[in-house]
Design a protein that fits this description.
- With 710 residues, this protein is an alpha/beta fold.
- The chain folds into 4 domains: 54 residues, Single Sheet (N-terminal domain of TfIIb); 233 residues, Rossmann fold; 188 residues, Dimethylsulfoxide Reductase, domain 2 (3-Layer(aba) Sandwich); 127 residues, Barwin-like endoglucanases (Beta Barrel).
- The strands form 8 sheets. Strands 5-4-19-18-17-6 form a 6-stranded mixed sheet, with helices on one face. Strands 25-27-26-29-24-28 form a 6-stranded mixed sheet.
- The model has no long low-confidence stretch (mean pLDDT 96).
- Bound molecules: ligand MGD (2 copies) and molybdenum atom (MO).
Amino acid sequence: MGDSVKTVRGACPHDCPDTCAMVVTVEGGRAIKVAGAADHPTTDGFLCTKVNRYLERTYSQDRLLYPMKRVGPKGSGVFERISWEEAVETIAARFRDIAADDPQAIQPYSYGGTMGLVQGESMDRRFFHRLGASLLDRTICASAGAAGYRVTIGASIGTDPERFSESRLIIIWGSNPITSNVHLWPMILEAQRRGARVIAIDPYRSLTAEKCDEHIALLPGTDGALALAMMNVIIGEGLVDHDYVERHTIGFEQLVERVREYPPEAVAKIVGIPAETIIRLAREYATTRPAVIRLNYGMQRHAGGGMAVRTVSCLPALVGAWRDASGGILLSTSGAFGMNTAALHRPDLMPNRPRTINMSAIGDALLGYHREVRFARNGNAHPVSELLKPLDPPIRAIYVYNSNPVAVAPDSRKVVAGFNREDLFTVVHEIFQTDTADYADILLPATTQLEQLDIHRAYGHHYVMLNQPSIEPLGEAKPNSEVFRLLARAMGFTEPCFSDSDEEIARQAICSDHPHMRGIEWDDLVSRGWARLNLPERFAPFANGGFLTPSGKCEFYSESLAVQGIDPLPFFVPPFESEQSAPELARRYPLAIISPPAHSFLNTSFANLASSLKMEKEPRLDMHPHDATARAIVDGDEVSVFNDRGALTVRVRVTDKARVGVVVAPSIWWKKLTRDGRNANDVTSQALTDLGAAATFYDALVEVEKARSR
Ligand SMILES: Nc1nc2c(c(=O)[nH]1)N[C@H]1C(S)=C(S)[C@@H](COP(=O)(O)OP(=O)(O)OC[C@H]3O[C@@H](n4cnc5c(=O)[nH]c(N)nc54)[C@H](O)[C@@H]3O)O[C@H]1N2
Ligand SMILES: Nc1nc2c(c(=O)[nH]1)N[C@H]1C(S)=C(S)[C@@H](COP(=O)(O)OP(=O)(O)OC[C@H]3O[C@@H](n4cnc5c(=O)[nH]c(N)nc54)[C@H](O)[C@@H]3O)O[C@H]1N2
Ligand SMILES: [Mo]
């Protein structure tokens, strides 16, 4: 490469809506600077606090650089270096052995380590499909909302974030963009400068809520009820856009009947905010144009997460907010992309359709149980004994990549017990020795984004992104795609797709007939790093209807839910665990706990780096003064947070940022970097959401006590 300085175009791989365009400066083969591309419309020349320090991650002394095998007890993290040949042969031999009985006993487990299509969902899928391994239902983040939105709108398509700056009313609903979607924030600030009002709906006064014109602190998991009461007011006061409703929606008459069951006065008790606030919010929303809702994950991680998103996403059609390019709702832009996923995943390689394991119930699954989803009508949590069915065959091998389940999956005690099984063969492919890596039998070193090629879609903008490698892999680290190529060869898989190079896979991804992909050319991606989908500059997806539902309308009434035996109209599904839905449980565990992202972590990524740890200091719990006083807890006390599932130790910050009855534990900490080896997932539950069978991280009751008294 010589000593000359060059710059390389890249894309941030992390699980975040922003998928930034990066410019990497390389000198003599070493990356010396990572910056946000100034020419990319949403990146706009800056990166977040975490990825700004990407070199700290890439060149960390803690990188895994060689394949290793376990030589200590499971979980001890004691390994010995081996060669790649030995690693690949050991894995292939075990997989061959298990597959001879039943390949479904082999479980892939991956999520958002990298969002790249090459390193996240191509060679890996092909390999496991060809093998006949169990499928993985990737429900740990977005599946509840995606399902609720799909039923109502048809696909994950919404308002262009670049149009937010022209909106007059922005409702940030269950979202904390200053932390988790920072490139949307300048557009919101611009709107505010032009006179827009910005309202946050969040049980917690987050960094974002603090900066809004108004903060509505509802009780966790009650968003669906709030939206139904808003509709009650909008319909009751004649604020409906009848022309839009008439032409582009279905089920209005039934909706009118349904929302009568949700008058603001009754709903006020459910959501824990005054009826006047609900009425004022509904009026302001219905009478301000353009009005846009940034709906995000906070409301999804509860029993009724899918129905909550479905209900909120009825609002824009009711008031005609979709008419404006800067009105409507934004959940995710991912559905606007038309990548050729069949070419990437090759589902045709599956011998027949194997079973599917839900990643959010991996604890149960590793312990031999399949967890069923029962639609939680009225929030009645089914007894766990009814929901768990024996898993046949049991999982005998698990291959983890792009994920850290021991720290991120709910009901952690069960997850740890599962990974601790002596008879389980565990492969972990990682950049760092995470909590999960400690349980590996074979631990493989992974490359970072600077060392690998990838192509990305985004869920918070409308640009296809190319990441070109800027440096050589460190040590013996290999990208995911390369390891699956090696494994395919060792297993004797001869289909030509197992020889595709990373560039060939990336080119296949954009080889698509989808109209939004028209004009996306490889050469442009190479020279510029990104390309806008084939969408108008002032993209107003449903200004003239054209919803992607079966009826082509915004479905207040959903026939597809009706045929599944689910109420076809929006209704409120209370949390599994709350004062109102589980009073007996609430007597023992009166506090609701939520554990949203800490500002300087990205799930558990970055949570091992010195600079991130310096900013987050130590595991913390925000608690309202009233709740603290009632427990004789003062600011700075070390406390135990516990319920029937487990416990963790944290330091309390007494603050009215948390509302009464709700405690907040910024997450996700590496368990082994905390004082007691535990994190918030020691108290979260494996119960699954109504639609989308997703995790319910923010639906948990706990009690808190001074640590020394226990
Ligand atoms: N810095 C940073 N950025 C991230 C991440 C990270 O870990 N760190 N994670 C990335 C990932 S994977 C994701 S999925 C996104 C998540 O990003 P967001 O969509 O912002 O989701 P959360 O931060 O989980 O929750 C957002 C807000 O919802 C609130 N909330 C909790 N329960 C409820 C509720 O019942 N109703 C309402 N209305 N609000 C509620 C929380 O207090 C929080 O302030 O961020 C991505 N970006
Ligand atoms: N209590 C609580 N739990 C939560 C959440 C919460 O808000 N509260 N949020 C949930 C959400 S939204 C999500 S999305 C999940 C996130 O769960 P995960 O997707 O598991 O996210 P990370 O913890 O960041 O772990 C990703 C791992 O992939 C590794 N990795 C990165 N790039 C590569 C690569 O190219 N190859 C390989 N082999 N590995 C790579 C990283 O080093 C990292 O250890 O967590 C969920 N868990
Ligand atoms: Mo996520």
